[in-house]
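Assemble and predict.
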Amino acid sequence: MNKTISSARPDGPGPIKEYDTEKEVVRLNPISNGTVIDHLPIKTAPKIMRLLKLNFDEAVMVAINIDSKKKGKKDLIFIEGKKLTAKEVAKSALIAEGSTWNIVKGKSVVSKSVIQMPKELFGIIICNNPNCITNQEHIETKFTIDNNKGKCYYCEREMEMDDIVKSLE
Amino acid sequence: MNKTISSARPDGPGPIKEYDTEKEVVRLNPISNGTVIDHLPIKTAPKIMRLLKLNFDEAVMVAINIDSKKKGKKDLIFIEGKKLTAKEVAKSALIAEGSTWNIVKGKSVVSKSVIQMPKELFGIIICNNPNCITNQEHIETKFTIDNNKGKCYYCEREMEMDDIVKSLE
């Protein structure tokens, strides 16, 4: 038995066969305007989704642990209608440095860049030292990132990347 | 600028152009052996993923709020290497009654069925009455489902479907 699962393709020539076992491909409508994050380290896509607090009011497609030419395996996210803010890119870097960040407009990729680890982060990481001035008064946090660790500018507390990422979610 | 993002297709004739803006399609390798849940109500795929406690050791593809011929919009999940247990199907029914549940073997859909709401659920729902015998002693819970509500067999406490689903995650 060789079946296909079809869905509508309102703007196309006919229904897309989403799961075409004969042609061995999963086909989905691409996003028209939004963001594609590619070459994510495996298993990071669910973290990125939580971090971006997606409301799923528009299409989101996520592929986890799929084959990649560059990296062996990777994750991949398509988000319709979403433009990442600078803060969201910085947060994503903490989880997925080196991933490719594409901006799609009118169904074309208009910008493609590599998500790079920022050297300084403002107002993103919450210092895990309860006595730090940033936890006592209304002061924006400032962290320097070096060698996969974050260091608070104010109290000099060092935080491991794992703890930083947990604090973001 | 019209670009494509490519990845390896180790068993195929060449790299798949995953995001082919010219042909207006997202293409991914299908799963070989596993589960496809289709025609999910929109925004339920993330809940199903949490409920199934996926570890992402094999490929998972999720499409949320995409076009559907049958339903206008839908969610869709592909899970490599996963066979749903009877309990997982029953849990999924509470979130996504009427969805299509496909079993894939050797890249073919070998079974296709509709996820139906069970009339009775054993050991799945935790009764929210703290005094219920099932919360006091080592007794498996039993709920009857009727009119989108669950009723505990032991203490007759009624639970709304929303509360039931929250208790599953």
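Chain A touches chain B through 56 residues (CB under 8 Å).
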